[in-house]
Amino acid sequence: MNKNETKMKRGLKNRHLQMIALGGSIGTGLFYGSAPALQAAGPSLSLAYVLGGIIIFFVMRMLGEMVVDEPIAGSFSYFANKYCGEFWGFISGWNYWFCYILVSMSELAAVGIYVNFWLPDFPQWISALICIIIITIVNLVNVRSYGEVEFGMTIIKIAAIIAMMVFGAIIIFTQLGPFPQNFSNLWAHGGYMPHGLWGLAISLVIVMFSFGGIELVGITAGEAENPKTTIPKAINDVIWRILLFYIGAWFILMVIYPWNQVGLSGSPFVEIFAKMGIPAAANILNLVVLTAAISVYNSAMYSTSRMLYSLAKQNNAPKVFGNLTRSGVPALPTLLSSFITLIAVVLTYLFPQKVFIYLMAVVIIAIVISWFTIVLVHYNFRRKKNKLGEKTSFKTFFYPYDNYICIAFFIFVIGMMTQIPSMHLAVVILPVWIILLSIGYIIKKRSGH
After folding, report:
1. Of the candidates 155, 159, 117, 145, which has an alpha carbon nearest to the alpha carbon of residue 290?
2. For position 239, which CATH number holds?
3. How far, in Å, CA of 264 to CA of 38, rounded?
4. How many domains does the chain divide into?
C-alpha cells in the first residue's frame, strides 16, 4: 500500500463538525431559495420546515448510526457498496458527487446575484470565477484550513441570523418600523395557509432543497477527531439549531412584513429590510448572504473531493483520484470538481436570471436520490447487524418504521415536483440520470476497472 494512501488527517474537531453541518445547510436555501416556498405556503412555511426537519433528522440519525459504527471517508457511498452491493455504491457515490457539483453551481449563481445588489452592472460570471479561485486554494491547503474557514463563515451566518431575529423582535414590540407592526401579518393576507394544503405540499419541495448539505457531517467521518463521540453530538445538536434558525428567522420576517409583498428577485431577507427603509440592515444582510453562498460552495468543494476520493478507493473511479498530498488532501479530486464548476460561470454568463432556479430543480432530484440511498442502505445495515446479533451505539429511534416513512416522503416530494413547471425538467432528467449511471456501471464492470 502506498504510504500516501494512509495519510488522511483527522484534523476536524467537534466545533468544526458543528459548524460544517450548520454551514452546509444554512445557505442559499434559507437566504434566497426559500422565496418561492414562501409564495406557495405563506406563513405556513414554518410548518413546512418542521415537517421537513423531522424527516431530515431521521435521515441524519440513520447516517450517524452507520458512520459511528465505522467512521470511513466517503460515508454512505462506502456503506452502499458494503451493504447493498457494488451497483448501489457506484450509483450513490457518483450521484452525490454530481449533486454537489450542481450545488456548487447554484451557489456560484447566487454569489453573482448578491454582488449585483451593490454593483448592478458587475457581470455575475466574474463574481463566480473569483469565488472559484479563492475556495479552491483554501481546499488545497489542508483539511484544517477548510474547517477553520467554514467555522468562521458559519459563525458570521449564525450571528447575523440571531441579530436579525433580535432586531426584528425589537421592531415588532416597539413599533420601530415604518408601519404598524403586529402579528396580523400571519393571517391578514389570505390566512395562515393561504393556498391550503396544496400550497404547503408545494413548498415542501423547496424546503428540502434548503436542508441539502446537512448530511455533510457524515462525509467528514474519515477526518474527524474522535468520530464516535463528536459525530453523534454534531447530529443531535445541529437539527434543533437549524429548525430554530429557519423557523425563528422566517417567523420574525413574516410578522414584520406582509409575506405576499416579497418578490423573487433577490434574498427575501435583504429585500424586506430594504423595503422597510433600513438600508444599513439590508447591506449587512447582503454581506451575510454572500458569505453564506461562499460557505456552502466551500463545503460542496470539500464533499465532492472526498466522495471522488472514496469512489477511487472502492475502485469505482480512476485510482489516481485516491492519492493524497503530504498534507492529506485529495488534490486531484478537488481540482477536477473545481474545474467542472466553471460550467456555472458559463451558465451565469448565458442565463443570469434563470440559472439558479433550474440548477435548484436538478439539485433537489439528486439530493433526494442521496437521501433515499441513505435510508435504503441503513435498512440493510440494521437488518444485517440484527441478524448477526451485533449492537450499534448510536441507534435510530423507530427502525424500520422511520425508514418506511422517509421513503414514502421522498416519493411524495418527487411527485409534487411534477406540479411545479420550473421543475419539470428535473423530473424528466431523473430516469435519464439513473440510466446514465447504470451504463457507467456496466462499462466499469465490463472493462474491469
Report:
1. 117
2. 1.20.1740.10
3. 10
4. 1
Angle (CA) 71-75-80 rounded to 5° is 120
CA distance linking residue 369 with residue 259, whole number of Å: 32
Can you tell me the distance from the alpha carbon of 256 to that of 170, in angstroms, rounded to the nearest whole number? Answer: 10
Average pLDDT over residues 321-341: 82
Distances (CA, A) of 88 to 63, 101, 194: 16, 20, 42
Single-letter amino acid code for the residue at 81: N
Sequential DSSP letters for 111-169:
HHHHHHHH-TTS-HHHHHHHHHHHHHHHHHH-HHHHHHHHHHHHHHHHHHHHHHHHHHH
SS3 12: strand
Across 31-35, 160-164, 408-412, which has the greatest mean pLDDT?
408-412
Q: Which domain holds residue 127?
A: 3-447
Higher-confidence residue of 382 and 296: namely 382
| pLDDT of 219 over the 70 cut | no
| Nearest-angstrom CA–CA distance, 337 and 348 | 18
Instruction: Report how far residue 65's alpha carbon sits from residue 232's, in angstroms, rounded to the nearest whole number.
Output: 8
DSSP 8-state code for residue 221 = G
Asked if 368 and 410 count as a contact pair (C-beta separation under 8 A), the reply is yes
For residue 261, CA distances in Å to 226, 256, 271, 275, 381 come to: 48, 12, 10, 10, 48
